[in-house]
Structures are given as C-alpha cells and as structure tokens.
From TrEMBL, chain A:
Basic and acidic residues bias locations: 435-447
Region named Disordered: 415-447
Protein name: DDB1- and CUL4-associated factor 13
GO biological process, alphabetically ordered: maturation of SSU-rRNA from tricistronic rRNA transcript (SSU-rRNA, 5.8S rRNA, LSU-rRNA)
Domain Sof1-like protein: 356-442
GO cellular component: small-subunit processome
Subcellular location field: Nucleus, Nucleolus
TrEMBL record, chain B:
Protein name: BING4 C-terminal domain-containing protein
Basic residues bias: start-end ranges: 79-90
SUPFAM superfamilies: WD40 repeat-like
Domain of life, source organism: Eukaryota
GO biological process, one term: maturation of SSU-rRNA from tricistronic rRNA transcript (SSU-rRNA, 5.8S rRNA, LSU-rRNA)
Domain BING4 C-terminal: 432-510
Matching Gene3D superfamilies: YVTN repeat-like/Quinoprotein amine dehydrogenase
Length: 447, 606
C-alpha cells in the first residue's frame, strides 16, 4: 500500500458554536459569489422592501407649539442655539420658545397691531422686531432682571416697516417698507435710504455670505438687489406676478430663491437676472415663504394651499410634501440650523415641528442600524429608476383640494402646450418664437 | 552646415555678472553637453581637424531624420521627469500583498467601466467613482479569502503509479479522523428503492421510499426526527425552506409534513408528481407530473405561481439551475429544455442526445450542464452558450443519475457503481477520480453541501461515502449554516421570507433586472402618439419583403403594375386638363366685399 494522505472536511463544532449562552453567535463569512446566487434579483427585492419601509416610516410630524392667540406672522431662528425660536403674531405678541421642551419661555405684546418681522443679531443675545406701529424694537434674548423685559432700543421710522434683516458682521440692519432703509443700532435716523420708483417693499434679506448684498421683494412685482456700501440700488428684475419672500442660498452666495404668487419658486443667479436658473413647480397656490437648509442643497416652501413642500435646489419638482388636516394657510417656514427639522407657522395660531427627512429615525443610531440604513440607501439609489421602485418612492398622499387643484393645473398646462404646438404647426416657421418655461415668467431686467 | 560655438553666446550677461547667473549658465552649458551627446562623437573628430585654425569651431554634420528624432527624444526626457516629492516608502512595509489575478477574476463583477459612451462629464465622473468602489469591493472580497478557516479536502499520493481510483472507502476510513470516518455508513432498509435528499445547509437528510417509508434525520448526530410510512408510493421528496417541513410526492397528491411526521397539507391541486425541486430563494416548489404538467407552488402563501403542460410527456430527469432558478427537463427525444413559471414555452432548448435523456445536472455557478442519454453517452455543455458539447464521454452503461458537487466533481451512477469524475468539464477526464461499488442498484444520489460526503439512495437502503475534496469547506453563515440554532433558524426564515424573489424574475439571465431597459422603436412611437400635440411620422413597422422582384412571376407583375399606373396617371392628367378648361369657362362670382360669406355657394345648392 502506497503512502496516502487523505484530507476531509471535518469541522470541530466548538469552533463554530458560541461558548456560552451570553456570547454572541459565530458567523463565519465566505464571499465566494457561487455561494451567493441570484444576487441581482435579491438586491432588487431588498431595494423594493427598503423603499416600502421608507414610506412606512415616513412620519414627519413631531409636534406643535400652541400658545399664540392669533395667526403666526413671522419667525426667527437663533443663530447659535438650536432650541430657541422667536415668533411674532398678527396681534402684536412675540413669543420665545424652547423647542427641546416644546414650551413657551416668554411672551409679551411687543407692537400695536401686527408683528411684521423678527430677526436675531448675529451674536444671538438680542433680536429686532418691526411692527405695524412703525417702530423698530430691539429686545434682549435672555431676561435676567425686570429691566430686560423692556426693549433695549426703540427706533421710530417715518414710514411703515414690513421687514427687517441684519448684516452678518457689521452692526447694521435693513428694513423695508416704502423704501429700503439701512440703520445703525446707535443712531435714531437711517444711515441710508434706497429708493427705486414708487414701489413698496414687503420683504428684505441680507446675503449671509456675500454679506453686503441685500435683496428685497417689491409690490410692483419686482425683486431689487442692493449693496449696503453703495448709495443706490444695484439692479432689479420684474416678474409677471409678485414675489412674497426671498431666501439666499447659504452655500452658493450668488443664488437666491423667491416664493412667487404664481404658485412657483424661482432660483436666480444674482449676476444674471434675465432668467431664473431653476423654476420649482408643484404648489397649487401662492407660495408664501421659503427658507434654505444650511447645506444649501434643499429648501422648504410654505404655501397658501395649506401644504409645505421640500425642494432640492437643483430640481424642478418637490421631494416631499407635508400637510395635516388642521394646518391652515402657511405664513412662515424655517429650516433649522442642524438640517434636521422644519418649523412652520400657520394661520391657525400654531407652530409645527417637522422632520426634514420624513422617514429618518430620531435619536442615536447603533452601528448596525447605521450600516443597515446605509445599505438600504445604496440599494435605493441603485434601483432608483426602476419603475416599481420609482412609483413607490414618488407616491404621496395629498389632501383632496390639492389633488383637484393639481389636476386642474395639469389640464391647463396641457391645453397651453397643445395650443402652442398647434400655433407652431400652423404658422410659418420662425414667426412665433419658442419661449422657454424659465423665460416665460420674467417681464424685464433693469440695471 | 551648422555652425556652433564652443561657449554659448553671452550677450545678455553684463559686466557685473552675479554668481546666480553664473551658475545658471553653467547649468545650461552642462545640459547642452549632456543632452546633445549625439553630436559629441563627430564633434571630436571635427575639432581635431580644425582646432588649430580658429577659435570658432565649425561642425560638418548632416542631420538625418533618425538623428533628429533621437535628439528630440533625448531633449524631452529631462522635461518629462517630474520631481519626486513623495517620500520613499519605508522598506519594512512594502505595501499591500499582491493579489492573484485569477482570484480577482473569481470575485469580478463584470467588465470595468471604461469611460466611453457617456457624454455628460458629470455622469461619467459619477460612473467612474462607482466603478472604483466596485473594484475596491472586488479586491477586498478577494483579500478576505485569507480569513477562511477551513481547507479543501483531497488525496495526496506519493507513489506516482498509484491512482486515486484504487482508494476504497475502507482506506479512507483508516486514514481520516474518527469524526470524519463516522460519515461513512450504510442503512439497510427494506422498503424498496430509496430517494435521498440533504437539506440546504447539509445537516439533515430525508429518505423516501417507493413503498412509503419516509424518514428525516440529522445525519451527523444520527438523530432521528421522524419516521413514518405513508402507506402509499412516494415518488419524490424534498426539504422545504427550513428543516421543519418536508414535501413528499405520493401516489396521488403532494403532501407536506412537519419534522414530527404530522401531515400539514395535502395539496390536491398538484397530482401524480414524479419529480420535485425546491427553489429556496423564490420559495417555489417546482413539480413535474406524470402527464407532463409543470407546477410551481409558492409555499410561503400556498398559491400556484405557474401551472401548464410542457407537452414533453412523462419525464423523469429534472433538475434546477441554481444560477438562474430555471428548471431543466430532459425528454424522451433527447432534448433538454429550460422552463420558467411565467413563460409557457421553453426559454431554451438543446438537442443533447439522439436517445431519451436519463439524467441532468447543473453545477453550482450555472456554467456547466451534464446530461446523459440511454445511448450510454454523457455530455458536458456550457449552459450559458447553448452551443456544442464541451466534452463527450461514452460510458459502459446508461447513467441512472448525475450530480455535480460544490467543487465541480461529477458523480455518475452506473447500475450498482458510482463513479466520481474530477475536473471533467474543461478537459477530458481519462479516468474517474473515485469509484464506489455496491451490491445494490443505485436509485439516486446527492452530494452533501459543505461536506465531503456523497449520499446514495439504493434499492435496499442508503449509503453514505466520503469523496475527499468534493465539498465547499467554508460556509457563509448568512446563506446557510450547518450549525444553526433554533433562534437563528427562526430569524433567517423571517429574513428569507422578506427577500422572497417574485416568480416573474426567473429568467435566463438573472442580471436582467439591473440592465437598462431600452425601449424598442415601436414603444417610442406609441409613447409619442400619447402626447397630445405631437403628430408622429407614420412608420410602417411591417418587415419588408426583401424578395420583391427576385423571381420571374413577380417581376412580370411589377412591370405590368407600373405600366398600369402610368396609364392611370396619363388619364388623370388628361382629365385634369379638361376640367381646368371647364373651370376657366365658369364666370367669376360677383364680389360683395365683407359680406361675401352670405352669398349662397352654387356647389352647396347641388
């Protein structure tokens, strides 16, 4: 008999079983592809499950802050503290909120009539409010003594004040009303007044990156850009309908987005106002307010159609829509500075807190949870354009009035498109110019 | 002619020559000397001639194109050299261990993205990034092989004349450890021909006999789960997704039992089943009946996913392709056809033998298919190509059964002998790797997954033999775990149910679901028609008759047709001229200006 060596698989169970019951199970792995057959269909099913689970867990509403005795007119984020929010109401009351505890920390009547706008100073220890009573009041954020309850500074404007915004670094702020006025906190008179035509302005916002630039929305349907260092306004663009609010992109200094009355939002490049960079559609009524996420990749818009929509800044249609039965017309929206929450103020006196990502789990994630989520994210991305996956990911339930309005808008749009196409088909080529969607809504640009 | 000075001209150097400039010149000068050494050899020759005469030297050099190129390439060299800013790697760590390209190919996920064909640079970049990640994953998977704990089995013989064929089970039992030797055993049972099947993790064994004996047990510990006699003939048996449920195809209907032998279901919708296969990822129990009906039963919801007649008649050779979960059926005409539940026609057909097919087997990664016919031949096919056999063997008798092991060994059952061939797909094996002779006829056999064991169901019981090197030594516990506990099994069952692949996804190419769906021209035209305002061009999608005018009769027809058309055209033209003359005769309508539309039209009066 020749010398034979025979080796056979013989596993020692001790090496494959856990030693005690408290121990974790031993999971030997082998990445050989022949042991993992049908990889593609299995991944597809996993992606389908992941996208279904995302929809199942999409519960964005966190809670509401009630206390105002009239509709919420404006809100302001604290620049340094995530849990602090100031809100003003149509009855002149200002409330400060502790968002973590969902409680009102302080409330007082600040103005006669409506509070038009609030803005925090960059240091965060004071905030300014403007109201219908033509006063600009500066308040302390923290109340230590009784004196602190009174305004630190009260300025009287000659005309109505409807908006306020603070410079990122210098101690100046801008208000709007009949004109755009630039104030310094130490002086009683505005240091600069910008005028252009006989328009009245209703919204003003400082650029937080290119921080001497500010933009305002005027009631004569125009958007005006100013430079705080210069004496006159820079340029303006007139649109078909009035813009209600404006937000600067915090990451791309030259981009701003306006919320328009014609149900759309427009992102402009401030160097080229001739046509917007993007048109964001989906709302079915006038858009009232807009605010950017701190990443600059997304923004939130609140509309008169009682819904909040989240847009990606480079996409034409919304990523998500939030609504509740009780929420009425939106008056103001804010995206929190940790990119996690959205705050909305509405007509029916409530401030609501939402998650920015509807299906995100709040709280600390365990490492295995995190990897599972990352894996399902990757799968969703891989199969995103698969019709079944896409259908589930895109599906949103909307209130009936929104659904009906959407249908109506769609038919109107189709009708216009068909008419346009027919006009082109039956007229001499070149006689009727083709106007792109972006150009349509711009009347003119003035320099 | 070329004139050169020995010293470079220094016309930009002023009298107060700084040291920096000096060094600069020196360098330049050196460089010239170094780089233009092509000239130096001739230069020296020439200089010797003319040195005495003048300070300025004249070189008599004729530049050939070859020289010119050589010099250019030399000129370029110092420019191309980039300064090496990187620090030299320390010698004690030479970097990652090199990967075996063959290993890398095993883990490969297809061709790499070359960057061609994508116009948008942004998308191109994204795809490149993705490709880099995929390649990294491939490499990591290949590297992870070092973590595998078990080695593959095998036989080593020092004497070269001695063949592995001569090694009997007794020799193996003497040479391996006691635990492994216990895997060689024999069960003498008296209820007629037995069929045996292992569970997916290779831990449990199911036996079913023609005379109704049904038994399930943990064959490693030899612990019996249940043993019953169903008092009916059993044609085939199968484990379901867990080892607590088994299916038995009995005389009339399909029955499902649990691991205590309690009847859970009697599926009367499926009758007279001859062969069964369980598709674990789809939760489908595929059955073929005596009358040629193929049925896929979704055992998770109890619904039938596909049921139709394959029109092949009675077939006893059935297997499934683990690569794409299609069924392979061999019929009495020697054709092997592939079937999916949603398509009522075979997905593919191969004429394998000119005699009835007796057995089929497909290897684990769906590359090779082995078929055998009554004509005693055995062929190996590349199942993805469906093209001519790779190997063609003639055997002593027609094989009863064929079976591929996890490491691509092929077991062939010939009467009362089981032969095992190693590496018989890519090259022709001259001799079997092993041979096992029994005094009983073989009914069927299965390789035990993750073990070097072949279980043979015979007419008088069950035999288990060891085939060294046939099984996969390292299992993946997330896929199938021989050491699974009860809680792990429960969890894995839930996970597997969540990831159940729908029956519609069974196709020849399992990666079809990840490929780009390119709409056909007909579909794009249909989509355009749906748009309200676009009028698409009318395109006749019927295939053209390419033989038009090729034969005599049609050519004559065409000539006649054209002649007729011409005549009709002439008649029409003539009529047009006549009409035109008539129209001209008509007096013009009197004009009433704007109110013209109220004047009655003579045409409408007709």
């Amino acid at each position: 008999m020749a010398n034979v060596k025979i080796k056979v698989i013989s596993r020692n169970p001790d090496e494959y079983l856990r030693a005690t019951k408290r121990d974790i199970h031993k999971i030997p792995r082998n990445y050989d592809p022949s042991l993992h057959p049908l990889e593609a269909p299995r991944e597809y099913v996993r992606a389908l499950n992941a996208v279904k689970l995302e929809r199942v867990f999409a519960k964005p509403f966190i809670g509401s802050l009630d206390g105002h005795r009239d509709g919420v007119s404006c809100m302001a984020k604290h620049p340094k503290r995530l849990a602090v929010l100031a809100s003003g109401a149509f009855d002149g009351e200002i409330r400060l909120w502790d968002l973590a505890a969902r409680k009102c920390t302080r409330n007082y009547v600040a103005h006669e009539g409506c509070v038009r706008a609030i803005c925090y100073l960059p240091s965060g220890d004071k905030f300014t409010s403007v109201g219908d009573d033509k006063t600009i009041k500066t308040w302390k954020s923290q109340v230590v003594t009784e004196e602190d309850e009174e305004p630190v500074n009260t300025l009287l404007s000659s005309c109505v004040v409807t908006g306020v915004t603070h410079h990122r670094q210098r101690p100046i702020f801008a208000t709007c009303g009949e004109h755009c006025q630039l104030w310094e906190s130490t002086r009683n008179e505005p240091i600069k007044v910008f005028k252009w035509g006989v328009d009245s302005l209703h919204y003003v916002a400082f650029n937080q990156v290119e921080n001497n630039i500010l933009a305002a929305c005027a009631s004569d349907r125009s958007i005006i850009l100013y430079d705080s260092r210069e004496s006159g306004p820079l340029r303006k663009v007139v649109m078909e309908l009035r813009s209600n609010a404006l937000a600067w992109n915090p990451m791309e200094a030259f981009i701003f987005t306006v919320a328009n009355e014609d149900y759309n939002l427009y992102s402009f490049d401030m160097r080229r106002l001739k046509e917007p960079v993007h048109v964001h559609m989906d709302h079915t009524s006038a858009v009232i307010d807009v605010d950017y996420a701190p990443t600059g990749r997304e923004f939130v818009a609140g509309s008169y159609d009682k819904t909040v929509r989240i847009f990606q800044s480079e996409r034409g249609h919304s990523r998500d829509v939030y609504h509740t039965k009780r929420m009425q017309r939106l008056t103001c929206v804010k995206w929190s500075l940790d990119n996690k929450y959205i705050l909305t103020g509405s007509d029916e006196m409530n401030i609501r807190m939402w998650k920015a990502k509807a299906s995100e789990k709040l709280g600390v994630l365990k490492p295995r949870e995190r990897t599972a989520l990352n894996y399902s994210e990757a799968l969703k991305e891989k199969f995103a354009s698969h019709p079944q996956v896409k259908r589930i990911a895109r599906h949103r339930h909307v209130p009936k009035h929104v659904l009906n309005a959407q249908k109506e808008i769609r038919t109107i749009r189709e009708k216009n498109k068909r008419k346009e196409a027919n006009r082109h088909a039956h007229s001499k080529p070149g006689t009727i110019p083709r106007v792109s969607e972006r150009e349509k809504h711009i009347v003119k640009e003035d320099v | 002619m070329k004139v050169k000075e020995k010293q470079p001209k220094r016309y930009f150097v002023t009298s107060d020559d700084t040291s920096a400039q000096k060094t600069k010149h020196k360098k330049k000068f050196n460089k010239q000397n170094v780089t233009k050494n092509k000239f130096t050899s001739r230069k020296e020759k020439n200089t010797q001639k003319t040195k005495n005469n003048e300070d300025v030297e004249v070189y008599d050099v004729k530049i050939t194109p070859k020289m010119y190129h050589a010099q250019r390439s030399q000129d370029k060299k110092p420019i191309r050299q980039k300064p090496n800013f990187k620090r030299k790697k320390p010698q004690n760590f030479p970097g990652k261990a090199p990967l075996n390209p063959k290993k890398l190919e095993e883990y490969s996920r297809g061709e790499r993205f070359q960057g061609r064909g994508v116009k948008n640079p942004l998308h191109n970049l994204k795809l490149k990034k993705k490709d880099r990640k995929i390649h990294y994953a491939e490499k990591q998977a290949a590297r992870a092989e070092i973590l595998l704990t078990e080695d593959q089995g095998g036989i080593e013989i020092e004497d070269e004349d001695y063949k592995t064929l001569a090694i009997t089970q007794k020799v193996i039992a003497d040479n391996v450890d006691i635990a492994a030797a216990a895997k060689i055993f024999e069960l003498n049972l008296e209820f007629g021909p037995y069929r045996a099947k292992y569970s997916r993790n290779g831990r449990h064994l199911l036996l079913g006999s023609r005379k109704g004996h049904l038994a399930g047990f943990d064959w490693v510990t030899k612990k019996l789960h249940f043993e019953i006699n169903v008092m009916e003939s059993i044609h085939d048996i199968s484990w379901l997704h867990v080892e607590t449920m088994v299916a038995a195809a009995q005389k009339e209907w399909l029955y499902i039992y649990d691991n205590k032998g309690i009847e859970l279901h009697c599926v009367k919708r499926i009758d007279k089943v001859l062969r069964m296969e369980f598709l674990p990822y789809h939760f489908l129990l595929a059955c073929v009946s005596e009358y040629g009906f193929l049925t896929w039963l979704d055992i998770s919801i109890g619904e039938i996913a596909g049921h139709y007649n394959n029109r092949l008649g009675r077939t006893l050779s059935m297997t499934h392709n683990p690569y794409n979960a299609t069924l392979c059926l061999g019929d009495s005409k020697g054709v092997v056809s592939l079937w999916a539940p949603t398509v009522k026609e075979p997905l593919a057909k191969i004429l394998c033998h000119k005699a009835p097919v007796t057995a089929i087997s497909v290897n684990k990664n769906g590359m090779y298919m082995a078929t055998s016919g009554v004509d005693r031949s055995m062929k190996i096919w590349d199942i993805r190509k469906l093209d001519g056999p790779l190997q063609h063997y003639m055997l002593r008798s027609a094989p009863v059964d064929l079976e591929f092991s996890q490491k691509n060994m092929l077991a062939v059952g010939l009467g009362d002998i089981v032969e095992i061939y190693d590496n018989c797909c890519t090259r022709t094996a001259e001799k079997p790797y092993m041979r096992h002779k029994m005094a009983k006829t073989v009914n069927n056999f299965k390789f035990c997954p993750y073990e070097d064991v072949l279980g043979i169901g015979t007419n008088r019981g069950f035999t288990s033999i060891i085939i060294p090197g046939s099984g996969e030594p390292n299992f993946d516990a997330y896929e199938s775990n021989p050491f699974q506990t009860r809680s792990q099994r429960k969890e894995a069952e839930v996970k597997a149910l969540l990831e159940k692949i729908p029956a519609e996804l069974i196709t020849l190419n399992p990666f079809e679901v990840t490929e780009v769906d390119v709409p056909s021209m007909r579909e794009t035209l249909e989509a355009k028609k749906k748009l309200l305002h676009v009028k698409p061009k009318r395109v006749d999608l019927r295939p053209r008759n390419k033989n038009k005018g090729k034969n005599r009769i049609t050519r004559q027809k065409i000539i006649k047709e054209t002649a007729r058309k011409e005549q009709v055209q002439q008649v029409k033209e003539a009529q047009g001229i006549l009409k035109g003359s008539e129209q001209q005769k008509k007096p013009n309508q009197p004009s009433f200006g704007v109110l013209n539309r109220f004047v009655s039209n003579p045409k409408s009066n007709k």
